[in-house]
Amino acid sequence: MNALDPLLLATAIEAVQKAGVIQMAHFGGPMRIDKKGDIDLVTEVDVAVERMFRAMIAERFPDHVVLGEELQQDDLVRHSAPGYCWVFDPIDGTTNFAHGLPIFCASLGLELDGQAIAAAVYDPTRRELFTAEKGAGARLNGAPIAVTRAASVLDSLLVTGFPYTVQQPEVGAELVALFGHFLGRSRAVRRLGSAALDLCYVAAGRLDGFYEASLKPWDSCGGALIVQEAGGNVTDWKGTPFQSRLPQILATNGRIHAEMLAMLAEFEAGRRSDDAN
C-alpha cells in the first residue's frame, strides 16, 4: 500500500491524547452516569470526548466517516464503510472509569475500505501511548514493541472480557465455563475490563493471548492492528482473519494461536455434546 499520510496518524495521536486530558479532568470526581442497559454505563465524559473527536474529524477530513460508541451509526456497526472510517471508543473501560478504577483508555482505529491502516490507544493514567501503522510496526511511547515468544498455553498469561449480556444465565454460565477451561490449562487468566488495553498488552508482551466472545468494532479495531504490527495473530474463534465487525476475537503472540483455537473448538464440541445429552 502507499505510504500513510503522516497527518492521519498525527490526528489519531492528537485525538486520543486530548481524550486523555478530558478523562483525567473528571476521573475520580462527580459525573453524570446513565445506563444503556442493566450493567452498561455511559458517563457524560464518554459523550464529551466523542463530540470533541467528531468535531476534529469534521474540520480536518469532512469527507471521512466516524463510527463512535456513543453516537454511532447503526449501519456502520454491522458493515464497514467505503473510503476512510475512523472507529473510536471515547472511553474503553467505562465501568472502570465510572468506579474510579484506573484501567481505561481512548481507542482509535482508522480503516480504509474496511481494513485498518492506523491505530492509536492512550492510557492517561500510565501515560502510555500505543500506536501502529499497517506495515510499519507497533510502538509504545515511540519505542518498537513485540509480542512474547511463549510457545505453549501452559506457559502463557491470558486475558479475557465479558459482554454486557453476561447476566443472562445461559450466557454467563457458558463464559464462566470457558474461563475455567482456559484457567485449568494456562499459567493464569486475567480480566481487566478494557479490551483495547488487553490487546495492547498482548502487543507489548505483557500478556500472551486474549479472547472475547462479543466485541464491537470500537473495542477491537485499533488494538487488533497494534497486535498484528507487533508480530501477533488476530482471528475469530474459527481462525477467520480479523475483521472489526466480527464479534469474536482471538489475539495471541502467534505461537500459541493454533493451540488456543483447538482449545476453543474442544470447548465448543463439549458444549454441543452436553446439549445432545
TrEMBL record:
<feature type="binding site">
    <location>
        <position position="69"/>
    </location>
    <ligand>
        <name>Mg(2+)</name>
    </ligand>
</feature>
<dbReference type="GO" id="GO:0008934">
    <property type="term" value="F:inositol monophosphate 1-phosphatase activity"/>
</dbReference>
<dbReference type="GO" id="GO:0046854">
    <property type="term" value="P:phosphatidylinositol phosphate biosynthetic process"/>
</dbReference>
<feature type="binding site">
    <location>
        <position position="89"/>
    </location>
    <ligand>
        <name>Mg(2+)</name>
    </ligand>
</feature>
<dbReference type="InterPro" id="IPR033942">
    <property type="entry name" value="IMPase"/>
</dbReference>
<dbReference type="InterPro" id="IPR000760">
    <property type="entry name" value="Inositol_monophosphatase-like"/>
</dbReference>
<feature type="binding site">
    <location>
        <position position="91"/>
    </location>
    <ligand>
        <name>Mg(2+)</name>
    </ligand>
</feature>
<comment type="similarity">
    <text>Belongs to the inositol monophosphatase superfamily.</text>
</comment>
<keyword id="KW-0460">Magnesium</keyword>
<keyword id="KW-0378">Hydrolase</keyword>
<dbReference type="Pfam" id="PF00459">
    <property type="entry name" value="Inositol_P"/>
</dbReference>
<dbReference type="GO" id="GO:0006020">
    <property type="term" value="P:inositol metabolic process"/>
</dbReference>
<feature type="binding site">
    <location>
        <position position="92"/>
    </location>
    <ligand>
        <name>Mg(2+)</name>
    </ligand>
</feature>
<feature type="binding site">
    <location>
        <position position="219"/>
    </location>
    <ligand>
        <name>Mg(2+)</name>
    </ligand>
</feature>
<dbReference type="InterPro" id="IPR020550">
    <property type="entry name" value="Inositol_monophosphatase_CS"/>
</dbReference>
<protein>
    <recommendedName>
        <fullName>Inositol-1-monophosphatase</fullName>
        <ecNumber>3.1.3.25</ecNumber>
    </recommendedName>
</protein>
<dbReference type="GO" id="GO:0046872">
    <property type="term" value="F:metal ion binding"/>
</dbReference>
<dbReference type="GO" id="GO:0007165">
    <property type="term" value="P:signal transduction"/>
</dbReference>
<keyword id="KW-0479">Metal-binding</keyword>
